[in-house]
Amino acid sequence: GKHTVNLDNKTADMRVMPLTLEMGIKFKLHVTISGKKINVSEVPELSIPEDWMRDKLELNFYKSEQGGGEVENVNYDKQSRTAVITFLRPG
């Protein structure tokens, strides 16, 4: 619909338009599993800061419906494209 907005004693007519957002980034991981740690290799190279990649990895392995759990630490090495995910409890 149409809207009128007051800005600094001036009015501007505006119209609302839908905005399509891009889908999130999906990528495939190769993992080796032990009791408390998961070794992840072939982490894709993405143009995002390293702390964002650590957060993405943590969120991915925190998902309990996929057999994850509470993450204690994520050690990510951008150079070798590997990570070690350490869980709070073995399982």
From TrEMBL:
InterPro entries: Nmi/IFP35_dom, Nucleotide-bd_a/b_plait_sf. Residues 2-73 form the NID domain. One of its GO terms (cellular component) is cytoplasm. This is NMI protein. The gene is Nmi_0.
